[in-house]
Design goal:
Layout: H1 2-19, H2 40-54, H3 60-65, H4 69-81
Helix pairs in contact: 1-2, 1-4
Length: about 80
């Protein structure tokens, strides 16, 4: 199970690093809107890219609950486990 979490983390972090031009340090505790400054449109673009890469669909109500990258990793992991 932890290997799956590491794979998810790797995809999410790599996607963010490609989106963020300044090479910020990111961790599971990084707040997506507060620390990274992603607005709702950028967040949706980010989530859509994650969905494509991980072959999942993240419902909008789940996106609204996500605050940190750790929250996103856990949400994606639960969604993948349910498929």
């Amino acid at each position: 199970m932890s290997e799956q979490v590491e794979d998810i983390r790797t995809v999410i972090f790599a996607t963010l690093h490609a989106m963020l031009p300044d090479g910020r340090t990111i961790t599971d505790a990084t707040h997506i809107t507060e620390d990274l400054g992603l607005d709702s449109v950028a967040m949706m673009d980010f989530v859509m890219e994650i969905e494509d890469k991980l072959d999942i669909s993240v419902p909008l109500d789940k996106i609204a609950e996500v605050e940190t990258l750790g929250d996103l990793i856990a949400t994606v992991q639960r969604l993948k486990a349910a498929t």
